[in-house]
TrEMBL record:
Domain Acyl-CoA thioesterase-like N-terminal HotDog, chain residue ranges per copy: 38-116
Organism this protein belongs to: Trametes cubensis
Family matches, as Pfam families: 4HBT_3, 4HBT_3C
Family listed: Belongs to the C/M/P thioester hydrolase family.
Keywords recorded for this protein, A-Z: Hydrolase
InterPro entries tied to this protein: ACOT8-like_C, Acyl-CoA_hotdog, Acyl_CoA_thio, HotDog_dom_sf, TesB_ACOT8-like_N
SUPFAM superfamilies: Thioesterase/thiol ester dehydrase-isomerase
The protein, known as: Thioesterase/thiol ester dehydrase-isomerase
Molecular-function GO terms, alphabetical: fatty acyl-CoA hydrolase activity
Length: 317
């Protein structure tokens, strides 16, 4: 398939998530997206394609309620990924599926997901949406922010970064708007983004909506740890140049079956800890009306260039 066709297919969320069934419990990716300068295929696409494969192997009476996964190796966009689904358990209330993603004979990704017969009569509560969040119409798209920074800066490296970010944004099937940056009581930045899937002419069924949400959940997520490091270490308090950033694991808990990723979802993200070259991020997704539909967590490798600290320490010895 020509490169232009691959790009177009990725820009359609339905095509980006599509897999081909090869055998019972065995599926193959149709398109894979390698973001500019990324180490491998976009992790959200791998999660969502694995979910589509698992959904195809479970009774529709069961609804996905959680997933836990590990990114083991970077995936190449040049070779299809095979998704092997293991029907681990089928109970009366819950069903469990495991998905192993393989490329060139090596396992690159593992996911365990759980499905539940819905229990709508059980009691509910939720953490409310942050107050006074501007509506999507009042927020700037990420592309606009990068375009303005590109025009304002004279730093060649910053310009190059902006061009790379703009290329990634223009090819993404997800539209993103910044709704603001706030501070927790402890001074940790909280990032607020509106997300929605582009090019959704119809409202998909709830099972596929959860797959789209999984794709969205990896957008602007582990990068919040990098932004937090930069913000907290302003003024020369420590190294801030991130030289490696990649996901290690990811989990999502779903608490609603009635949301539309073709409409906006508010992603509230905070990075609560970084140490030993790793960082954790936590996210909550809300509908515009304030319903908390999903809770996400991720840990990733976030390494900074600490050579200056090493040299300064050595000079004191």
């Amino acid at each position: 398939m020509a490169e232009a066709d691959n790009q177009w297919n990725h820009e359609q969320i339905s095509s980006a998530l599509e897999v081909e069934q090869l055998d019972v419990n065995l599926y193959r990716s149709k398109t894979l997206y390698l973001p500019p300068r990324a180490r491998g295929v976009f992790g959200g696409q791998v999660i969502s394609q694995a979910l589509v494969s698992a959904n195809n192997c479970v009774d529709p009476a069961f609804s996905l309620h959680s997933l836990h996964c590990y990114f083991l190796l970077s995936a190449s966009a040049a070779v299809p990924i095979l998704y092997n689904v293991d029907r681990v358990r089928d109970g009366r209330s819950y069903a469990t599926r495991a998905v192993r993603a393989v490329q060139r004979g090596r396992t690159i990704f593992l996911m365990l997901c759980s499905f539940q017969r819905p229990e709508p009569r059980q009691p509910t509560f939720q953490l409310p949406m942050p107050p006074n969040v501007p509506s999507p119409d009042a927020c700037e798209g990420i592309e606009v922010i990068y375009e303005r920074l590109f025009k304002e800066t004279t730093d060649a490296k910053v310009k190059d970064f902006c061009l790379t970010a703009l290329e990634e944004r223009r090819r993404s099937p997800i539209e993103v708007k910044l709704a603001g940056v706030r501070e927790s009581e402890d001074g940790i930045p909280i990032f607020l983004y509106w997300h929605k899937a582009r090019n959704t002419p119809v409202r998909y069924d709830p099972a596929f909506q959860k797959c789209i949400l999984a794709y969205i959940s990896d957008s602007q997520f582990i990068s919040a740890a990098r932004r937090t490091l930069t913000q907290l270490n302003q003024g020369g308090k420590g190294p801030t140049k991130v030289v490696m950033q990649t996901s290690l694991d990811h989990n999502i808990s779903y608490y609603d079956d009635d949301f539309d990723c073709g409409d906006w979802l508010l992603y509230v993200i905070i990075s609560e800890r970084a140490a030993s070259g790793r960082a954790a991020v936590h996210g909550r997704m809300y509908t515009p009306s304030g319903t908390l539909v999903a809770v996400c967590n991720q840990e990733g490798v976030v390494r900074v260039d600490d050579r200056e600290n090493i040299q300064a320490t050595a000079a004191k010895l």
